[in-house]
Specification:
The chain contains three helices and seven strands; from the N terminus they run αββαββββαβ. The protein is of the alpha/beta class. The strands form two sheets. Strands 1-2-5-4-3 form a five-stranded mixed sheet. Strand 6, helix 3 and strand 7 form a beta-alpha-beta unit.
Length: 156
């Protein structure tokens, strides 16, 4: 636990205002960052923090918040045997920078997040739907998406 606390404090001191919150919770280290600084934070964690593996990128929908979406990045350091979670808040209609330049594996994760939540990633080389049909309307993992969808289908 103290390793995580020390790591969180060192990341916060190295990145200054880019990190908005660090707290050890349930044996994990979530780091809250400003969305505008996501690329800076990820570069630091990859180069100086030794978090070389991007495990996952996902979204969380909070429709009652002004900044509706959390972009969540799960990182792994094999040399430290540690995992951390980086979260950035993004408003509806806003975009966040892609991290493909730092973690090439983010490409499909970011496309999936765009397809399911509608969060766009600026400078992404292929920002198009990946799981739903091309003509699909809406974003199925948003909490305001109707359970029946927007299109009525008739099966014969």
């Amino acid at each position: 636990m103290s390793d995580l606390t020390g790591l969180g404090e060192s990341i916060k001191s190295a990145l200054g205002g880019a990190v908005t919150g660090v707290a050890v919770a349930r044996g994990e280290l979530p780091i809250d960052v400003a969305a505008a600084d996501i690329l800076k934070v990820m570069l630091h964690l990859n180069d100086d923090g030794d978090f070389k593996i991007l495990v996952d990128v996902c979204g969380v929908d909070w429709p009652q918040r002004q900044k509706r979406f959390d972009m969540v990045y799960h990182l792994l350091s094999l040399t430290r045997n540690l995992r951390i979670r980086v979260k950035a808040q993004v408003g509806e209609g806003e975009s966040i920078a892609t991290v493909i330049g730092v973690y090439p594996a983010a490409g499909w994760f970011e496309r999936e997040t765009f397809d399911m939540y509608g969060v766009a990633f600026s400078d992404h080389p292929d920002m198009r739907r990946i799981l739903t049909d091309y003509g699909f309307s809406g974003y199925p993992l948003r909490k305001d998406f109707p359970l029946t969808g927007y299109v009525e289908l008739r099966y014969d």
